[in-house]
Amino acid sequence: MKKLILTLIVLALIGYLYLDWDGAEPKVEWLDAPKDIGAKTAVSLQALDDGKGLARITVTLVQGEQRQIVFEERMARSWQPWKRGTPQRAVAFQPVEALRDFSLAEQAFQMEVEVEDHPSWLLFSRTSTLKGDFRYDATPPSISTQSTQHNIRQGGAEAVVYNVSEDTVDSGVLVADRTYRGFEMARLDPGQRICLLALPYNAAADTPFKLWAVDASGNRSEIPLAIQVRPRRFGRDTISIRDSFIDKVAPEILQQSNLTRPATHKETFLLINRDLRQRNHSQIEELSRRSASNLLWSQAFLQLSNSAVQSSFADERTYLYQGQEIDRQTHLGFDLASTAASPVEAANDGEVAFAGYLGIYGKCVILDHGLGLMSLYAHLSEISVALSQQVTRGDPLGRTGETGLAGGDHLHFTMLVQGMPVNPLEWWDAAWVRNHVLGRLE
Ligand SMILES: [Zn+2]
User: Is the dihedral of CA 192, 198, 203, 204 positive or negative?
Assistant: First the structure.
């Protein structure tokens, strides 16, 4: 009997020793640990342990002789030897924000990570360490304006050339709260940037403009930018919508846009004129983010040859159906009419950013002219260019037509600055283009 009890005790002990043995060292690695650390920068890391599980993660910040723990987490163990503790833990912390014992100098520092697992047989734990070199930078980048005499019309554009300090990774202009990105250009000095910006047609005359810059540590600067706003008046138009017009245009637009036709004519029109219009604007805005970081052209834009203006930029359109107002939209382009199926030319040098069917715009070509500037050609009957093709000013893009939401054969032409429609009149005007854009690059 005694012998049996003794054997059972020995077996239990062997079982415990076997089950509670952790042969694996914990592992630790940085997940997101930028070299340049600002006051608010977050750092993340991941710890793993295959055996008894993680017990502790400790991060110590070291600069010269000074040290302080900036992050620590302890994890409970399981008291049942056959169960594992925490096998994996990802943590994020803000090292500078957590620092209390000393103030960090704006220079190099280190972080030492120690990861400990739970002990085997309550005796032997294992520890792994990870070290990293970082740099503390709390100084925001500097910005100053280079170009002068900025003025912008409602619905218009402007270019600003400005200087940024070397550590700048991103910069541009804020128009109220909309961000425009600045670009480096080969023909500018290394510290210089150019930003094309737009003022919405309905923006207030006291809209604030600011230059902004961000460095690798996330430090951000903003300074006011003096731009004089010139008001502009826009036209109005009333359009009566008939069932026959809806029946003519809706089937193709809906089919090309994967939309199901609603029950009534009125709902069908609103689905296209309101919802699809909004969706198409988002698609165009998305495209504008992939604009080339260089100016692809060198002279004023072309207006469609021998064309008459049918409708201008920012005309406010009121839509009537059976005598009742059912919708209002702003026409953010020019309608240019010529003879039917007239050749459509590239308004300037650029690259084809879109060629295909685009909702209310029907068969449509969008050209990228660089720095976020694009031109759009809509309602075409025929497209003769392909995506990514390089085009020269005056090259054929296709022919005018009445695809999409169009009442007759015409070209709908829009200019866009980083996704914001602007008045093409400025870009067709050689003096404006010289004074506001090309001249600022000399
Ligand atoms: Zn139009």
Answer: positive
Q: Measure 311 CA to ligand 1 centroid, in angstroms.
A: 7
Query: pLDDT tens for residues 82-119?
Result: 677 888 999 999 999 999 988 999 999 999 999 999 88
**Helices (H) then strands (E): counts for the chain:** 7, 31
Amino acid at 59: V
Task: Give the distance (Å) from ligand 1 centre to CA of residue 205.
Answer: 26
Delineate the domains of the chain, giving CATH numbers in brackets.
23-136 (2.60.40.1930), 143-230 (2.60.40.650), 236-423 (2.70.70.10)
Residues within 5 Å of ion ligand 1, judged at the Cβ atom: 335, 412
**Ligand 1 center–CA 337 separation, angstroms:** 10
Q: What are the backbone angles phi and psi of residue 344, rounded to the nearest 5°?
A: -105, 125
Cα 333 to averaged position of ligand 1 atoms, centre (Å): 6
**Distance from residue 255's CA to the centre of ligand 1 (Å):** 21
The β-bridge partners of 46 are 29, 90
Confidence (pTM): 0.84
Token code pair at residue 150? 């900025």
Is residue 342 a contact partner of residue 377, using CB atoms and an 8 Å limit?
A: no
Angle (nearest 5°) at CA 154 between 149 and 155: 110
Q: How far apart are CA 151 and CA 441, in angstroms?
A: 17
Q: In angstroms, what CA-CA distances link 101 with 60, 61, 68?
A: 12, 11, 7
Q: How far is the CA of 207 from the centre of ligand 1 (A)?
A: 27
Tell me the per-residue pLDDT of 226-246, one tens digit each, with 9 for 90 and over.
999 999 989 999 999 999 999
Tens digits of per-residue pLDDT, 253-277? 999 999 999 999 999 999 999 999 9
Q: Which H helix or E strand runs over 6?
A: helix 2-19
Q: Which residues pair with 401 in a beta bridge?
A: 410
Residue 99 Cα, ligand 1 centroid: separation in angstroms? 59
Rounded-to-integer distance, Cα 332 and Cα 374, Å:
14
Q: What distance in angstroms lies between residue 67's CA and the mean position of ligand 1's atoms?
A: 66
Using the mean position of ligand 1's atoms as its centre, give its distance from the Cα of residue 366 in Å: 15
User: How far apart are the CA of 411 and the centre of ligand 1, in A?
Assistant: 7
